[in-house]
């Protein structure tokens, strides 16, 4: 049996190749994501471990952030002397490091990275652990001098002697580049600017005598943990955090972990789609191979092979296929990881491919996925093969499902589908977002399973409709292609299922994204009354000088400032909520249309008052007149009276949790020195919007991080953000289509082999090669469109249910992207044509006499 199995595997290796490709793609994404993330993690672990001080003293963070928006946490410089007197301290240094600064050249073009990595301004202090070294020029020696890292200098064509402008929280200042610093370790992709310590304190932090941290070097023989304990006792831990080098490296790695997790989960998402779609392909392939080997299996049974041996033989072939696919997939995954590393290099994160990490988890996961998926997918065909009696097999009775009733599928599919439909109905009628989302997830899974199970039941009625015009358009060729697709509903259903999964995903997400876009458009039209909105590109606060310059711009009528600060509110039901609350200028009604359930803007912004979302208030027993204890950063506390309850669509439009906001004067009283995050600007009487926009853009030209947007720009910004998610879905769809095409090609190729004698007879009675190719292409098209129709129908149902969940968050508009849906159906027909090219060509080249004589 082992020899027979190996010979059979080698005999059918061409037919199994396409199935191996599905396994290869699944394994490649799993292996590639693990290798890439392991390599980045190891690289940055070494970077953080080698550059962190023995002990670092930092300001403690409590209430989310103990600072007003845009400010930088600092420690008092006097703490350095207390630390230096601690036993075991060899050296101390005040560090200044500020992220989120903007650096522009003489043409007001940003010299920072465009990949989302920060621009960081630091004080210049070189130790053996510094990640950079001075390679040209000299160190900064006073105000107006700075260094820049070599990578940024090369990318942005910055040279020694150039003048740059640094825009920081206290304001902007000019510096001359007097030197270039080169990374001695991995460049994480950030742009670095270095100043001398007095300039860094004054220009980045707003005053002398403060720093962002204190770096401490331990004496020989003193461990980091011991020194940390001594320093903690000396300075206390109420105001400061004391971390060892390992703890610093761990916290830095944790921040990086979020970025890595995004990449890892995206790639594992691709792997999941590849696995799911590959299962259909492998099931179909083995079902057809077993159908073609009916007589061979019957002879084995007649010669004494029992059911277990036949089943083991088929499963062994599947295992061999899994091993081959996993090995090739692992190699492809290494190549994929190499490509990602090179891509990160183009984006500024200079990883070394020579230091690629392949841990033991990677090959184990690769083979577990590859072999496991193939084994599971081949199990049902193997059981079916083992269940055939020798006499039935020898008499050429098909075992691939032709003619067998679909009663079991009908019952199981109906039950699972009913449960899925009930879950989706529950999702639509739910009033809580959490329960609605849970029911949605359950409904999606169950309806997908039900559609896959019941797919063969839908083949005959749906394909009769889809191919109904074939006889009229293509005559007997069209009729035969339609009947070929109807011949084996199980095979057609499994082939179409691969395409159906991807299209259901894209259909659902297209409806959801279109509905979100329409909802945001309506909300912006309804609530935004300002001519223009001035914001930072990354929505972070900006320096006060920008607010002042906008105020002074000719033609500006009203400027309403928006500022956020972290607060903790103790609600009447006893819950303590930490959230972000907004502060707004007095003329808020001039730039925003706010719907109130009770109260008005004047009451909300009055000193000592606040506003809250009405639904949130009801959930927490808050009423008009309720007094809410509020804790602001730095321990400042007060009590504010709820004077207005908002009833905005979306509920959370004017803050975070609870949509709490109050007057800007109230915020400035308890959180002085903050920065504005948004300016709402209206044109003065007699100034057109176009004229004001031109003037504002000219005013803000030196600040490339700040944008002027009107309603249309704001809508486009939202669309672009939603499109990022949609592009990911389209990429997943592309992968699903690639594997689905392989599935259709495989099915048609094996179908051609299965129908060799039939094709020979058709050719003998006059069917031309061109007609034969057309017949196979039409069969492929109707199968692909069948999968598209099922997938899009399922996706539309999912999309409507997703919109109902979003409606609980105020996104009430439902939009169906009909153009996308029609394009997908047309694209599916093209996919069918492409998939049929090789099988049709092979069929048309058959020798007629050899085909008729084929066993």
Automatic annotation (TrEMBL):
Residues 17-233, 492-698 form the MacB-like periplasmic core domain. The keyword Glycoprotein does not apply. It comes from the Bacteria. It is found in: Cell membrane. Residues 270-390, 732-848 form the ABC3 transporter permease C-terminal domain. The chain crosses the membrane at residues 265-291, 314-338, 358-380, 410-431, 437-459, 493-516, 724-753, 778-798, 818-838. It is a multi-pass membrane protein. Keywords: Cell membrane, Membrane, Transmembrane, Transmembrane helix. Belongs to the ABC-4 integral membrane protein family. This is FtsX-like permease family protein.
């Amino acid at each position: 049996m082992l020899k027979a199995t190996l010979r059979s595997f080698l005999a059918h290796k061409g037919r199994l190749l396409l199935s191996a490709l599905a396994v290869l793609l699944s394994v490649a994404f799993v292996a590639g994501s693990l290798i890439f993330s392991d390599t980045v993690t190891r690289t940055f672990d070494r970077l953080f471990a080698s550059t962190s001080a023995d002990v670092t003293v930092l300001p403690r963070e409590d209430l989310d952030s103990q600072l007003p928006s845009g400010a930088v946490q600092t420690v008092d410089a006097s703490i350095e002397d207390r630390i230096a007197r601690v036993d075991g301290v060899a050296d101390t240094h005040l560090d200044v490091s500020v992220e989120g600064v903007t650096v522009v050249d003489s043409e007001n073009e940003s010299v920072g990275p465009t990949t989302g990595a920060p621009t960081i301004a630091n004080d210049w202090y070189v130790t053996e652990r510094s990640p950079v070294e001075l390679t040209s020029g000299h160190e900064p020696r006073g105000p107006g001098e700075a260094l820049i890292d070599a990578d940024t200098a090369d990318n942005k064509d910055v040279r020694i002697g150039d003048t740059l402008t640094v825009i920081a929280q206290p304001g902007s200042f000019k510096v001359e580049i007097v030197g270039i610093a080169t990374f001695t370790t991995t460049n994480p992709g950030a742009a670095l600017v270095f100043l001398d310590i007095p300039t860094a304190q004054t220009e980045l932090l707003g005053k002398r005598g403060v720093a962002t941290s204190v770096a401490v070097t331990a004496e020989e023989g003193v461990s980091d943990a011991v020194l940390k304990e001594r320093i903690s006792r000396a300075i206390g831990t109420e105001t400061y955090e004391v971390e060892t080098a390992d703890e610093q490296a761990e916290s830095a790695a944790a921040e990086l972990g979020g970025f890595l997790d995004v990449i890892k989960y995206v790639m594992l998402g691709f792997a999941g789609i590849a696995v799911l779609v590959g299962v259909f392909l492998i099931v179909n392939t083995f079902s057809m191979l077993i159908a073609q080997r009916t007589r061979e299996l019957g002879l084995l049974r007649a010669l004494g092979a029992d059911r277990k041996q036949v089943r083991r033989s088929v499963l062994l072939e599947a295992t061999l296929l899994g091993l081959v696919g996993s090995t090739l997939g692992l190699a492809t995954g290494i190549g994929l990881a190499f490509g990602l590393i090179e891509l990160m290099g183009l984006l500024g994160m200079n990883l070394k491919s020579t230091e690629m990490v392949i841990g033991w988890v990677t090959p184990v996961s690769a083979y577990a996925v590859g072999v496991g998926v193939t084994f599971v997918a081949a199990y049902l065909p193997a059981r079916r093969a083992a269940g055939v009696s020798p006499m039935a097999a020898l008499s050429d009775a098909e075992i691939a499902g032709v003619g067998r009733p679909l009663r079991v599928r009908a019952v199981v599919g109906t039950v699972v589908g009913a449960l899925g439909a009930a879950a989706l109905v529950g999702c639509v009628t739910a009033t809580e977002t959490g329960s609605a989302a849970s029911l949605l997830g359950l409904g999606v899974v169950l309806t997908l399973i039900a559609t896959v199970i019941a797919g063969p039941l839908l083949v005959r009625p749906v394909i009769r409709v889809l191919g109904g015009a074939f006889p009229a358009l293509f005559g007997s060729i069209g009729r035969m292609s339609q009947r070929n697709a109807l011949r084996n509903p199980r095979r057609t259903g499994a082939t179409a299922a691969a395409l159906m999964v991807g299209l259901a995903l894209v259909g659902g997400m297209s409806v959801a994204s279109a509905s979100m876009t329409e909802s945001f458009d309506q909300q912006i039209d309804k609530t935004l009354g300002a001519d223009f909105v001035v914001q930072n590109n990354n929505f972070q606060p900006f320096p006060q000088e920008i607010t002042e310059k906008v105020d002074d711009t000719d033609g500006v009528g009203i400027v309403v400032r928006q500022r956020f600060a972290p607060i903790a509110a103790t609600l009447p039901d006893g819950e303590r909520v930490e959230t972000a609350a907004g502060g707004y200028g007095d003329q808020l009604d001039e730039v925003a249309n706010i719907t109130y359930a009770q109260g008005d803007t004047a009451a909300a912004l009055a000193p000592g008052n606040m506003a809250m979302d009405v639904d949130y208030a009801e959930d927490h027993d808050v009423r008009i007149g309720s007094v809410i204890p509020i804790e602001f950063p730095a321990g400042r506390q007060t009590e504010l009276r709820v004077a207005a309850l908002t009833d905005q669509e979306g509920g959370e439009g004017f803050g975070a949790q609870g949509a709490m906001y109050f007057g800007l004067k109230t915020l400035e009283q308890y959180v002085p020195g903050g920065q504005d995050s948004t300016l709402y600007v209206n044109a003065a009487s007699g100034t057109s919007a176009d004229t004001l926009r031109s003037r504002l853009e000219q005013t803000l030209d030196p600040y490339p991080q700040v944008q002027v947007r009107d309603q249309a720009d704001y809508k486009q910004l939202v669309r672009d953000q939603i499109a990022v998610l949609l592009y990911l879905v389209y990429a997943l769809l592309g992968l699903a289509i690639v594997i689905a095409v392989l599935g259709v090609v495989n099915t048609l190729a094996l179908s051609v082999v299965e129908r060799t004698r039939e094709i020979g007879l058709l050719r003998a009675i006059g069917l031309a090669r061109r007609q034969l190719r057309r017949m196979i292409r039409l069969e492929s098209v109707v199968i692909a469109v069948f999968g598209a129709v099922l997938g899009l129908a399922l996706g539309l149902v999912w999309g409507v249910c997703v919109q109902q969940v979003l409606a609980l968050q105020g996104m009430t508009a439902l939009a169906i992207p009909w153009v996308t849906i029609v394009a997908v159906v047309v694209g599916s027909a093209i996919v069918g044509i492409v998939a049929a090219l090789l099988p049709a060509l092979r069929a048309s080249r058959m020798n007629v006499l050899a085909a008729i004589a084929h066993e």
